[in-house]
């Protein structure tokens, strides 16, 4: 009798049935599609159907599916060694990547880099490092922020459903401030006042190790942190001896038109977390920060068996070369301009689209009903209709009413326009 696990499945439905039997329901899946192959900003499913990929693996594929330079670098690394654990026997690509990230990160001070595997792992370690350096325990995050699915990062995350539901209690001494949102009437002054209120009502400033913020909220709905907010947070942190952590897991690696999104504000954070597109689809994450801060933990306090894998380091070095050679930061700004123009043209004909927003090629549209209330149901219908027509889209936002675009920066203009055309038709069909 043939092994069912190894038998060929020719349809998405057959694979979905196997998935439901083998994989826990807590692992969500936006589209009932199984990929067969991918190329730049296109994928083909197991039934041979082609899709334009406006999701990019949730901001992982800024250099596209299977970029030839990344593939070549990983293949070359495979021929040499795949794993030693850096803490046992080290390897040069880890050091080379750390040197490059140290040189690229904002701030006129010495830096060091820790390499890890996932974004949540990077955030956890950034908090560990901040606590070790400051000898303080509390952390302030922001409402609607997203920092990961581990227990500590869930505590930092400012969105309950679906991430935090049923998983409490969460670690103590985590507090949430308000994030500016013009549509909800929350100003920068309100946000800063909410931090200062925490100092009065919940935790003294002298006990706060770090304030962590996404320069552009990802899961929260692509809400852009105004430069004034980041500048005032920097001043507030300096006044109280608090470290500022920029969570760039989704925004980093060029998504917003600068390699680090916080560069738009002119602010230099003490620590930056990176992951997602850093290694072009291979699992790799980083914490980049002030050298004296990064050196606070004792030997053995940082690391991980797979942290900074040789394959991930090789891929990331290739990604950085591609960014420089192909001017992908400039391309990110061009992609963002094309998407924003196209989405605003779509919005002009549809009152359900109440805002087009973003930074660089991190662009989203917010949907509301006739009464101005968040319209998550229309958002779901548009996502479903787009997939039916050959476009992979994602939703996000505290209320599930935001469509976000994270298309590879290497996508040609014609493909971007084709994707926008499908979005346009999907609105017609979903209305």
TrEMBL record:
Cofactor(s) in the UniProt record: pyridoxal 5'-phosphate
Enzyme class: transferase
Keywords from the named record: Aminotransferase, Pyridoxal phosphate, Transferase
GO BP annotations, alphabetical order: gamma-aminobutyric acid metabolic process
Transferase as UniProt keyword: yes
EC identifiers of the protein: 2.6.1.19
GO terms for MF: 4-aminobutyrate:2-oxoglutarate transaminase activity; identical protein binding; pyridoxal phosphate binding
SUPFAM superfamilies: PLP-dependent transferases (SSF53383)
InterPro entries assigned: 4NH2But_aminotransferase_bac (IPR004632), Aminotrans_3 (IPR005814), Aminotrans_3_PPA_site (IPR049704), Class-III_PLP-dep_AT (IPR050103), PyrdxlP-dep_Trfase (IPR015424), PyrdxlP-dep_Trfase_major (IPR015421), PyrdxlP-dep_Trfase_small (IPR015422)
Pfam family, one: Aminotran_3
Family assignment from sequence similarity: Belongs to the class-III pyridoxal-phosphate-dependent aminotransferase family.
Name by which UniProt lists this protein: 4-aminobutyrate--2-oxoglutarate transaminase
Organism: Azohydromonas caseinilytica
Biological classification of the source: Bacteria, Pseudomonadati, Pseudomonadota, Betaproteobacteria, Burkholderiales
Gene name tied to this protein: gabT
């Amino acid at each position: 009798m043939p092994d069912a696990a190894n038998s060929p499945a020719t349809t998405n439905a057959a694979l979905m049935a196997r998935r439901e039997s083998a994989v826990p329901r807590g692992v969500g899946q936006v589209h009932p599609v199984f990929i067969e192959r991918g190329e730049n900003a296109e994928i083909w499913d197991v039934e041979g159907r082609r899709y334009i990929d406006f999701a990019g693996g949730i901001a992982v594929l800024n250099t596209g599916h299977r970029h030839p330079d990344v593939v070549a670098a990983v293949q070359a690394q495979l021929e040499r060694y795949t794993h030693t654990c850096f803490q046992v026997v080290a390897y040069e690509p880890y050091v080379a990547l750390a040197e490059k990230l140290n040189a690229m990160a904002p701030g006129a001070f010495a830096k060091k880099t820790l390499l890890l595997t996932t974004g949540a792992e990077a955030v956890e370690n950034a908090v560990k490092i901040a606590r070790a350096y400051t000898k303080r325990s509390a952390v302030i995050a922001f409402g609607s922020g997203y920092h990961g699915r581990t227990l500590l990062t869930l505590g930092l995350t400012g969105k309950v459903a679906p991430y935090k539901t049923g998983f409490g209690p969460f670690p103590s001494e985590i507090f949430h401030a308000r994030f500016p949102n013009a549509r909800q009437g929350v100003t920068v002054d309100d946000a800063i006042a909410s931090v200062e209120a925490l100092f009065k009502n919940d935790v003294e400033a002298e006990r706060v190790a770090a304030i962590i913020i996404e320069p552009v909220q990802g899961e929260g709905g692509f809400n852009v942190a105004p430069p004034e907010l980041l500048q005032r947070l920097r001043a507030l942190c300096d006044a109280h001896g608090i470290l500022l952590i920029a969570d760039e897991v989704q925004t980093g690696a060029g998504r917003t038109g600068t390699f680090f999104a916080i560069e738009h504000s002119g602010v230099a954070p003490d620590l930056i977390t990176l992951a997602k597109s850093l290694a072009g689809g291979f699992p790799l994450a980083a914490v980049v920060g002030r050298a004296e801060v990064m050196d606070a933990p004792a030997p053995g306090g940082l690391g991980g068996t797979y942290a900074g894998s040789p394959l991930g380091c090789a891929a990331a070095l290739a990604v950085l070369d591609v960014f420089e050679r192909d001017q992908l930061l400039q391309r990110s700004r061009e992609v963002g301009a094309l998407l924003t123009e196209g989405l605003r043209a779509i919005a002009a004909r549809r009152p359900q689209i109440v805002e087009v927003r973003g930074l660089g090629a991190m662009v989203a549209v917010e949907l509301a009903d006739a009464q101005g209330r968040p319209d998550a149901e229309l958002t779901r219908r548009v996502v479903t209709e787009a997939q039916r027509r050959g476009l992979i889209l994602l939703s996000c936002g505290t209320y599930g009413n935001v469509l976000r675009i994270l298309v590879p920066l290497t996508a040609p203009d014609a493909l971007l326009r084709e994707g926008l055309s499908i979005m346009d038709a999907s609105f017609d069909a979903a209305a």
